[in-house]
Amino acid sequence: MTTPSAPADRNRWLAALGYGLLAEVCTIVTIIFISLIYKFGIARGLSDAAYEAFNEKLGGIVGIVGGTVFTYLFARMVVRRISANFIAHGLLVALTAIVISVSGSLAGHHGVPSGYILASILKIVAGWFAGFQGRKPAAI
Asked: Which of 37, 39, 63, 118 maximizes the CB count within 10 A of its CB?
């Protein structure tokens, strides 16, 4: 006999993929948002080269920190809705975000900058930690 939560758990694998995509989209949107605030609000009138240098540094910082934070937050959202395989779901969110990030880098930069290695490791840790935190304590 199956439990009522069994079909919902099966669908959460797809949710984990979607949340991994969403984590990466939120990271990109955050980078764009900060870049626009800098260009049109904080540092008006700089040269294109100056904006490009700022955006490169911004992408490196927010890509690593924001990518980790968004991966953790979205992995927690998935983990709260399941009854088993917590760490696996958290890791799937992370791995999805990593695949999208690396694929985008390969398409845009024709390579993978070294900062992506650290970002990927931190995403895996964030996904694992979200899954670890989501485990239900064993009944005594």
From this structure: 63
Question: Buried b / exposed e across 40-55, counting CB within 10 Å, b at 16+?
Answer: eeeeeeeeeeeeeebb
Helix (H, G, I), strand (E, B) or coil at 32: helix
What's the predicted TM-score (pTM) here? 0.85
Q: Burial, 88: exposed, middle or buried (Cβ in 10 Å; 0-12, 13-18, 19+)?
A: middle
- 79, 131 contact by CB (below 8 A): yes
Which residues, 6 or more positions from 35, have their beta carbon under 8 angstroms from its beta carbon? 51, 54, 55, 58
Task: Report d(CA 80, CA 63) in Å as an integer.
Answer: 25
What would the pLDDT profile of 74-108 be if each residue is shown by its tens digit?
A: 999 999 988 888 999 999 999 999 999 999 888 88
